[in-house]
Write a structure and sequence with these properties.
Elements (H helix, E strand, L loop, with lengths): L4 E4 L5 H8 L4 E3 L6 H8 L3 E6 L7 H4 L7 E4 L9 H6 L3 E3 L6 H16 L2 H9 L2 H4 L14 E5 L3 H11 L4 E5 L10 E3 L2 H7 L2 E4 L13 H7 L4 E4 L8 H9 L5 E4 L10 H4 L4 E3 L8 H19 L17
Parallel strand pairs: 1-2, 1-3, 3-4, 4-5, 6-7, 6-9, 7-8, 9-10, 10-11, 11-12
Helix pairs in contact: 1-13, 5-8, 9-10
Amino acid sequence: MTAQEILAPTRMMPLIIDGLRATGKLHCLWEKDDPEVFLRENAVKIGAIAAGAHIAVNGPYMSQFPNLKIVANFGVGYDSVDANWAGKHGIIVTNTPDVLTEEVADTALGLLLMTIRELPQSERWLRAGFWESKGPYPLTRNTLRGKTMGILALGRIGKAIAKRCESFGVSIVYHGRSAQKDVPYRYYSSLVEMAKDVDILMSVAPGGDGTKHIINHEVLQALGPMGVLINIGRGSVVDEAALANALKNNVIFAAGLDVFEHEPHVPADLMACENAVLLPHVGSASIHTRNLMGQLVVDNILAFLSGKNPLTPVSETPFSRW
């Protein structure tokens, strides 16, 4: 028997649910009277899972489904899915790359400008009536003029950010697992050494054990008192306690964050920092882009159901495995 049923463990955007429901094979777990009973009785039928970041699709979870063949993840980051385990067990994992690149890069640049020029603070000054009562907002001490940005993880999004920042006259360098032959930017094999040489550290790094808290006290100390940290990748990359301490004690100048380690929770110590610009993970959050991402989740699963190759398999689980 070929398992052709689809499971949506948690709520997802209507475009995904409607697109998969049209197959007549979708099971939305939150609609079941007793989800645990449903899984016990129907796990053998499930061949595909549509998942977001709100559930850990790890080895024990996937092992419930003996005929599982594909996990279609909503988002370019897929650290909530154990892709290595999936690959070893013949399960494809897909994500939603490319379609969100430009939107996230736009957000990164907006967050950088907000942070380095203190734009949220100056707006608060106006709204509080201080422009009239106290005069103009104080001149900002930082600028993009003559700056160098170090990008952590120069992938699709990192390159799109680099292109935008170059048009502002910002010099680009990068750090990653290895140097890339097809880019014109200087490569640093050490994140700390790069942090010493740059004015802005832009993190686009994915989550996971390999990147957890790699932006730590040592890196922030190297970035220096006029340094700016921007994180548009994954919150777990930054040691948030170390960052809050660095902001409070002027170890770095400022930080702009769109992502946090335990979303939607934001540490109170970060919330208290006036030199931090905090956004609620809105990097790709436009209707246009989220619809494209949702459609890619649907298209990957529909490709599986029709016996075709998935459109966007991740590197740990090449489509040739099934």
